[in-house]
Amino acid sequence: MIGIHYGTASMPRSEILPGTMLQHHGKTYRASANVEKGLYAFNIFEKTIIKSDSVIVLLNARGEPLIH
Description:
mainly beta, about 0% helix
């Protein structure tokens, strides 16, 4: 889990930008590339492709997606 965040929100996968912090299956990931095939995401231990239509993003203090 990333140190400080201010909640989560569900967003369409098509709106996710590279660097956005995500939660997927209880783990925290950083978005890498968003292509038709899926959303590539990684953390220090693993890489994954998220194919669901919506993803859970971590929010910053302004309520916007947390981009690291």
